[in-house]
Amino acid sequence: MPGPPGYNYNSYKRAVHNWGQENGRNIVYETTPSGPASHQVWSCMIYVDGIPGFTGLASAYSKSGAEEAAATQFWAHRDTYA
C-alpha cells in the first residue's frame, strides 16, 4: 500500500511515525485480535502522547493491515494534534 500522496513514504504508518518524530509526539499503536484463530479480526487504536485518538481506529484481517488502516485515518486528521 502506498503512502500519502506528495510525500516520500512507503506507508501511512511510516508517515505517522515520522510526523510524531517531527512534532515531538509519542505515537503508540494498540493492536488486539478478536475471534477464533482461523478468522481473527485485528483492531488498532492510535494513541498520541498516551491519549487515544478520535481518529486512527480501524479493523482488518491482519495486524499490519489494521495498523495501516488506522494510520491512514489518522493521517487525514493529524493537524488536529498539532
Automatic annotation (TrEMBL):
Protein name listed in UniProt: DRBM domain-containing protein
InterPro entries with a match to the protein in the record: dsRBD_dom
SUPFAM superfamilies: dsRNA-binding domain-like
Gene3D superfamilies the UniProt entry points to: 3.30.160.20
Regions that span the bilayer: none
Source domain of life: Eukaryota
Domain DRBM, residue spans: 12-79
SMART domains hit by this protein: DSRM
